[in-house]
Amino acid sequence: MTLRCLLALFLAVPFLPALAGSPIADAQQRLHSAVDEVLAVADSAKTRGALVERLGPVLQKHISFAVMTRRAVGPGWRQFTPEQQNKAASLFTTLIIRSYSNKFTIGEHPVINFQTATSSGAGKVEVPTTLVYQGNRYSVVYRMEQEEGWRITDVVIEGVSMIANYRAQLDAEFKKGGAETVISSLTSSVARPQ
Q1: Considering the domain 14-191 in this protein, what is its CATH number?
Q2: How much of the chain exceeds pLDDT 90, in percent?
Q3: What is the residue extent of each domain of the chain?
């Protein structure tokens, strides 16, 4: 093997993890697919009700609502019974899907620019993006974890973690009255007209 071949091989090695098949590339590809699927649903929906109904299964496929709920509740989660955990996760899922769906304006399409993903630990990847929607530019980072494939476990918009934002609210509710107060708060939020 010539020196040039050895040098070329040596220089190529640091770039191998970024090739297709690496965890970072797999996570980023999964996010691309999820975003494409969400945008296809949003583009084809003619009414707000249809959008919410059709986005639900897509978001549930790509987002780990169980992880998000547990982290949003915080340390008090361990004191929930399994039934209370299921109820809280179901309500939180409904709340997030509805809130997310309400961010869309029927007929308007955001432009999303994906940036280089990075690993934030074993089985964890962060994918930064820039989103332009209705003339406004937003910095959005998707936190993903390997859980039955790559799934979104948090979204950081303009430096604010969705999970941390909900935790500030739900942890306060838990401290007031435990799991039942958290569930009551989530039930009220879901019941509120949008």
Answers
A1: 3.10.450.710
A2: 60
A3: 14-191
